[in-house]
Amino acid sequence: MEVINATGRRKSAVARVYLTPGKGNITVNDRDYKEYFGHEILSSVVTQPLVLLNVAEKYDIKANLDGGGIKGQAEALRLGISRALVKVDPEFRSVLKDNGFLTRDPREVERKKPGRPKARKRFQFSKR
Predict the structure, then answer these.
(1) Whole-model pTM?
(2) What is the DSSP secondary structure assignment for residue 73, as one 8-state letter?
(3) Residues with Cβ < 8 Å from 85, sequence gap 6 or more?
(4) Cα angle 50, 21, 5; round to 5
(5) What are the tens digits of pLDDT across the range 55-108?
(6) CB proximity list for 55: less than 8 A, separation 6 or greater
(7) Domains, in order of start, for the chain
(8) What is the pLDDT of residue 2?
(9) Which of 61, 44, 53, 46 is nearest to 5 (CA)?
(10) pLDDT tens, residue by residue, 3-55
(11) Residue 34 host element (H or E)
(12) Is residue 5 classed as helix, strand or coil in its secondary structure?
């Protein structure tokens, strides 16, 4: 089996994922994923699709993350891993889809409007 690549996005974070058969190593930007994300919650978000399908020890994952914050990057990586697993075995698709791992979260930051301090916030109104 050759290298399978997939892309995951969340907010402004982009994850390029490369999946190969291996022992279960996950490398993010040339660092171990637990070291990169720090928090145990974010590390578990990354491994959710692998744990769900019981394939955590079968594949090595190398990922390049760019943009966004740490949580957006973790969720982008989860989407990328899920898409790569579907390319490996199309039977995984129904299980991952039922758990919501193949849905790209469409929410983005709303742009700032002119004459306002933020996107929707207004300056304080003074009648007199």
Answers:
(1) 0.90
(2) H
(3) 19, 49, 50, 53, 55, 59, 92, 96
(4) 75
(5) 989 999 999 999 999 999 999 999 999 999 999 999 999 999 999 999 999 999
(6) 85
(7) 4-98 (3.30.230.10)
(8) 87
(9) 61
(10) 999 999 999 999 999 999 999 999 999 999 999 999 899 999 999 999 999 99
(11) helix 33-37
(12) strand
Which residues, including other chains, have CB under 8 Å from residue 56's CB and lie 6 or more apart?
A: 24, 47, 50
Rounded distance between C-alpha atoms, residue 11 and residue 68, angstroms: 7
User: Which amino acid is it at 31?
Assistant: R
User: Distance (Å, rounded) from C-alpha 96 to C-alpha 116?
Assistant: 42
| Segment holding 74, helix H or strand E | helix 70-88
Confirm if 101 and 36 have CB atoms less than 8 A apart: no
Asked if residues 38 and 87 have their Cβ atoms less than 8 Å apart, the reply is no
The rounded distance, in Å, linking the Cα atoms of 1 and 70 is: 31
Rounded CA-CA distance 8/28 in Å is 13
